[in-house]
Design a protein that fits this description.
The complex is a heterodimer. Chain A is 62% helix and 0% strand. Chain A is mainly alpha-helical. Chain B is built from nine helices and no strands. Classes of the chains: A mainly alpha, B mainly alpha. Chains A and B meet through helix 2 and helix 3 of A and helix 1, helix 2, helix 5, helix 6 and helix 8 of B.
């Protein structure tokens, strides 16, 4: 009883665009919102990809390569 | 087997995408660089386990993702942190040594549970399929899909994408900057 009342209340309070609940397996967001999130995500990621890579990684790989964990000749 | 030069070059070529993933996942550049370094060390040590012709990036992302989670669990044990205050401080620490933009988006991303964040990053930014992402995360494809959907719903709420159609987050940021300055 109280449960269904709470559920009704929640439904009333939910904005029209998100009547799907969070656990819904089908996309609950419209395409426009999804693509905006996608755009921002990729923009952030592209920015990170553009950053110069610290030298330590090339140095590390050079060092490991020279030593070789178990070099067989 | 000694990793040959082409394997090493392939690892080096993967560094920018590993870094972007690690920074987005951990929210901290220094920690991300340590994760990438540990990933490379493991990849070299386990080079003989990599099957040539299979997806090297997926293999590397799997290593990095597992390191992230085991480190996270270890930190949680070391630091008594019932309220998540330490974790929060980690993600909100000022970044050093790298310029990071997209603050609104990044801080919204940081509030997601890490399983949702990694699923969204792998599918939405790193370019992996749902199937590859499921393999990387060691879960079912359906689980990946529902995590991505939940991540999107939550972000759209946090970034107010579902409310104001014509006031984008960029304008909100600009307005906030103007008000602050």
């Amino acid at each position: 009883m109280t449960r269904s009342k709470g559920k009704r209340l929640a439904t009333v309070m939910m904005p029209q665009s998100s009547t799907h609940d969070e656990t819904s397996s089908e996309p609950g967001l419209n395409r426009q919102i999804q693509s905006r999130i996608g755009d921002q995500l990729r923009a952030m990621y592209d920015d990170l990809m553009q950053q110069p890579v610290p030298d330590r990684f090339a140095e590390l790989l050079g060092r490991l390569d020279q030593r070789g964990p178990d070099r067989k000749s | 087997m000694t990793p040959d030069a082409s394997f090493r070059d392939a690892l080096l070529a993967a560094v920018p995408s590993l870094r972007a993933f690690a920074i987005s996942l951990s929210g901290n550049v220094d920690r991300a660089d340590d994760l990438v370094q540990d990933t490379l060390v493991r990849a070299i040590a386990n080079a003989h386990r990599f099957e040539p012709g299979t997806n090297l990036n997926a293999w590397l992302f799997t290593i990095l993702r597992n390191l992230f989670h085991s480190e996270y669990r270890k930190r949680r044990r070391e630091v008594e942190d019932p309220d998540g205050a330490y974790a929060e401080q980690l993600t909100s620490q000022p970044e050093q040594g790298a310029r990071l933009d997209f603050e609104d988006f990044r801080s919204a991303l940081a509030t997601l549970p890490s399983e949702q964040r990694e699923a969204l990053l792998l599918v939405g930014a790193s370019g992996f399929s749902y199937e590859e992402t499921a393999a990387i995360c060691g879960c079912a494809v359906g689980t990946v899909k529902s995590r991505v959907n939940r991540a999107r719903s939550r972000l759209s709420g946090l970034l107010h994408l579902d409310a104001a159609e014509d006031i984008g987050p960029d304008r909100i940021t600009r307005a906030a900057l103007q008000a602050a300055g």
